[in-house]
Design brief:
globular, 301 residues, seven-stranded parallel beta sheet, alpha/beta, homodimer
């Protein structure tokens, strides 16, 4: 039997990986600091409470559960702060140890969460897995270095290692400090919402598709980095407009009231060919439908 | 006062860094698993016993000693095995946590031990710090990734970070399984010693000079990787011949009796300009004198 251990399993992405992993036939073990979350979680998942930053908590869990597959999504994710938080180093250390314990216990496949911030954002454009990493942030540096060590451990232990490089995402339950959630909540509350001109082009994917892509990557045998993005660029302004339409309050939007950040790259879009062709995954939710669903979810709060 | 904490301080290199660090005016704190070694150690050094692989042992030591400088030499170093040992991952984790704790405690400067195995050995030749890392071994991958994360932590915390990339070394007290030591011991014992043709060119430095270079790097403000090598290439055959001359038994040498390894690069020599010009360090011991001294040391055992 294929048995997957999912870390960060109560998180924004992680919680949505459990059902697709079950559908793919995995016996699913989920780990979160608090164990099984209060919110609805799919049936047939075995929950474990562990703080992976505790000395050897991850290793002990690996040796107890004996997973064949490891989907490691847990990381420091405080909005804004995560880009340059020293906590990223703690997660490098915890991840390296976790993957080492997994390999030593005979695990077969590791999937890590990488980031589009591993790429050279000065160049920007359509970002392809074969381009050399050039992270400008500590978050990107930490994710890139972690993947390098994990790939080395995989080679030593005979496990395959892949890393899903996440681009931009949104969906119900997102942290309210993030773009789509904050605009949706503001407009639904009848507040004026100021944004930049939003001319930068980004690659947005619904969180359920991001989670589905990770589940597909766990079941695949693709190695190395794999972009998890739609492959389609959209101006951030268009995303904000869709939120305003769905909220019925385009009148409250002050587009252009905020300055663009000087260091914002013009275009960051995933080359999604590896995800489509090698992993065999295509997203199911278009941007318009996904934004409408997300705004409805905030309306229902 | 400048206070340096030296890890791996009872090791082959580490033990020889303590005196030059004292001479440069540092208050020297040394850490080793067993604390102060039995063998002679210079006066005026404060010893600490700690296993840096123990959960937070390094962090606790940092918070107690409050060093301004950190010279981190401790690593898994079992001859032969270290190239592809999973223990390298444990040292990635321990090092990242140690440097994080050092930065968080207000430390000013970190010097790590890197390796010439971070370079692309397929290319080989004279290896310069600005060439992109392309490690082929897990040891090289782990050292490279560790430096990346440490540099990121340095930026976050306002500490400078350098990494001395060690090339080939020898000297009294070396592990008897390594080249110069094993040939010297064999010949001094009157045994026949088989070697390869030894046409590969390497950069050898006496361990006391390697240690002196690390001490200079601690006192300098150079950032990033710095080759610790002589800058002079020598055929391995010449090193072996010098050992045989010093031992007085060239008759026992079977040069060419062993096959060259197919993947041995022809030339691996340090570009030593950063070490010479930016760090201001030049080695004191020539190869002939250094080998003679080393063989004498083995003779006196």
């Amino acid at each position: 039997v294929s048995r997957v251990l999912v870390t960060g399993a109560s998180g924004f992405i992680g919680a949505r990986t459990l059902a697709p992993l079950r559908e793919r036939g995995f016996e699913v073990h989920a780990v979160a600091r608090a164990g099984r979350p209060q919110a609805s979680a799919p049936d047939g998942v075995t929950w474990h409470a562990a703080d992976l930053l505790d000395d050897d908590a991850g290793g002990a869990l690996i040796r107890r559960v004996r997973p064949t597959h490891l989907l490691h999504l847990a990381w420091y994710a405080e909005p804004g702060a995560f880009w340059s938080a020293p906590e990223n180093a703690d997660w490098v250390a915890a991840t390296v140890r976790l993957v080492g314990a997994f390999g030593a216990a005979g695990g077969l496949r590791v999937v890590l969460a990488g980031t589009c911030a591993e790429y050279d954002w000065n160049a920007g454009g359509v970002l392809t897995e074969s381009s050399p990493p050039a992270p400008a942030t500590f978050y990107g540096i930490a994710k890139d270095a972690t993947r390098r060590v994990a790939e080395g451990l995989g080679s030593l232990h005979g496990a395959t290692v892949a890393a899903g490089r996440v681009f931009f995402l949104y969906g119900p339950g997102e942290d309210p400090r993030r773009l789509v959630a904050s605009v949706a909540r503001g407009l639904l509350n009848g507040e004026r919402v100021a944004t930049s001109e939003g001319r930068q082009v980004r690659d947005f994917m619904h969180v359920q598709d991001v989670a589905g892509a990770f589940a597909a990557l766990v079941a695949a045998d693709t190695e190395g980095p794999v972009n998890i993005g739609s492959g389609d660029g959209v101006e951030v302004r268009r995303v904000v407009d869709l939120v305003a339409q769905a909220a019925g309050r385009p009148d409250l939007l002050d587009v252009g009231a905020l300055e663009m950040r000087a260091d914002e790259p013009a275009v960051l879009v995933a080359d999604a060919r590896r995800l489509h062709d090698e992993v065999g995954f295509r997203p199911e939710t278009g941007l318009e439908d996904g934004i409408a669903e997300t705004v409805d979810w905030w309306r229902s709060r």
